[in-house]
Hints:
Elements: H1 8-16, E1 22-26, H2 38-55, E2 63-67, H3 73-90, H4 101-113, H5 115-121, H6 123-126, H7 136-139, H8 142-150, E3 153-157, H9 167-171, E4 177-180, E5 183-187, H10 197-201, E6 209-213, H11 231-234
Parallel strand pairs: 1-2
Antiparallel strand pairs: 3-6, 4-5
This protein binds iron/sulfur cluster (SF4) (2 copies).
Amino acid sequence: MCSGRVDLEFLLRAFSNGLDGVFIGGCRLNECNYITHGNYHALNLVLLCKRIMEHIGLNPERLKVVFMSAGDGILFTEAIDDFVKTVKALGPLGEAEKMNKSELASKLAEVTRLVPYIKIAKQEKLAARLENEDAYEGHFTSAEIDRLFKEVVSYYIDPQKCQACMICLRKCPVEAIAGAKNQIHVIDQGKCIKCETCFDACPSRFGAVKKITGEPVPPPIPEEERVIVRESMKKR
Ligand code: SF4
Ligand code: SF4
């Protein structure tokens, strides 16, 4: 019921499910019932999502947020009418942008997979309170979002340093880390959502998880070379 509950993933999922437009109605800014002022967060998310849409070639007018009170019936109907007219004029999602269905699906899937990374990278701006509408346009810029995707971070486990303690494996939210007791762990780059959890979780005395930006991730160590033979086991 609260616009502050809207997540970037919800917006991208709505488009992935084929919606031609997404409208968010939030309480008026500065009239939030909670100290969290979630409607400012919703505004920032919409501004960010619009730039992401531009980045993948979708028309950002397909997404709109309007702030109103429960008594603003006329404003509500006018805003919805306007939005429906805009979306109808744009036409079906993807078709109007000259993108075929599989291209659209793969672009949306790729950015959706990176939502945790995007939210970490942009957390300060997502928490901002934009009091002035003039600030909306430049809060996130196209160049900034293009750079964000170009400089996407990858996480890699250094096989020389991994002690197979299994901490990262247990904490990874998407089971992207393969490993076992006495086995060097590896990250499945196809599954990794770049949430940084493993980087934070790996004990500093091991420091085995590396952040990699702007260069290819080394290939995973072959399975037959993953067993760690500890000094205590060698003596047996
Ligand atoms: S960054 Fe680490 S914890 Fe997060 S999804 Fe990737 S492998 Fe898992
Ligand atoms: S937390 Fe670090 S040392 Fe432990 S298994 Fe993961 S990468 Fe290896």
